[in-house]
Amino acid sequence: xxxxxxxxxxxxxxxxxxxxxxxxxxxxxxxxxxxxxxxxxxxxxxxxxxxxxxxxxxxxxxxxxxxxxxxxxxxxxxxxxxxxxxxxxxxxxxxxxxxxxxxxxxxxxxxxxxxxxxxxxxxxxxxxxxxxxxxxxxxxxxxxxxxxxxxxxxxxxxxxxxxxxxxxxxxxxxxxxxxxxxxxxxxxxxxxxxxxxxxxxxxxxxxxxxxxxxxxxxxxxxxxxxxxxxxxxxxxxxxxxxxxxxxxxxxxxxxxxxxxxxxxxxxxxxxxxxxxxxxxxxxxxxxxxxxxxxxxxxxxxxxxxxxxxxxxxxxxxxxxxxxxxxxxxxxxxxxxxxxxxxxxxxxxxxxxxxxxxxxxxxxxxxxxxxxxxxxxxxxxxxxxxxxxxxxxxxxxxxxxxxxxxxxxxxxxxxxxxxxxxx
Length: 422
Prior knowledge:
Elements: H1 5-24, E1 27-33, H2 40-57, E2 70-76, H3 81-93, E3 98-101, H4 105-121, E4 128-131, E5 148-150, H5 155-167, E6 174-180, H6 183-199, E7 204-211, H7 220-228, E8 233-236, H8 240-252, E9 259-261, H9 269-273, E10 281-285, H10 295-307, H11 317-332, H12 338-345, E11 349-351, E12 357-361, E13 366-368, E14 371-377, E15 398-405
Parallel strand pairs: 1-2, 1-3, 3-4, 4-5, 6-7, 6-8, 8-9, 9-10
Antiparallel strand pairs: 10-14, 11-12, 12-13, 14-15
């Protein structure tokens, strides 16, 4: 039956309305991280930052494509790889095509395997994994895949920057390495050994120990070994409650540092260290917020603190993740075709609001960026007369940049042999 002109017009209008509605639909991003259990504070604070970044930097700026809004959908994985896979399936069944996760490389390894398998079996329901904080080097080396993108500097990149600093400190002759007993903790220990052997072969590693993750209530036995070893410095990749417990026990035992860490900030950790951690605790990380490097960074930090007065803006990579995803969707011209979005992310160069150039290295999907060494202090931290060097945990203490490695490890090798979809 031939359509009348009126029917054709109605059909065209309906299609146009449908297209506009689809364009304005939200792009959902599944946040799979701990919202209960011993690491709930870390996960909950990360969720606040994702929600704020999506709203402030995407939705309030007009959204993506023709006005599509970004929506963060939280899923509690209880820091369990098994629970994470259950939540991944729930998210996919809800039609979500973008997954963000960062707490625990053990979880990230489980997710990247599951997503690669899912995408191979379900080409019409593919998803992307945006890893914002799980830094096991294997994820962008032997275990790399097209669907995984890492927005944090991996453990090797951070250790390279950290040992560049130690290399210039002749007073450090003995180092104790301690961490959590899983893939990330092992990666930190391995990187510390290899980097120190290359840069400071005179340094003696007087201890290299792993402890159960999230289960140690009393770190005293471990601290006794550190103190008796005569270590001049400690290196740890501990995070969450394990970082707090280990750090407090070391300082209370009279150790004067330096304690070089990956995650000794915010989530109650900064407040707990307070004066005792001043000029002792150091952190290797991306994204400088103290002092704030750009007017936009100041604007965002002020707005976040106004909306979330009890939270910490400690993971600047979350903002990079959201902005680069939105830019990739706009560049691809679609949010539904994740292959095109992934192709837009590959090789993307982006100016971070934190003053750093960002480049998503195409051969392994590892983001290359500036890496900083921070010191825990109250000097220059947020006061009424110094409004743009921010405290954490409403404690009067925070982190100030001591040194910076520009575009850290941009030429570092990778063993990634990525297979791309046809």
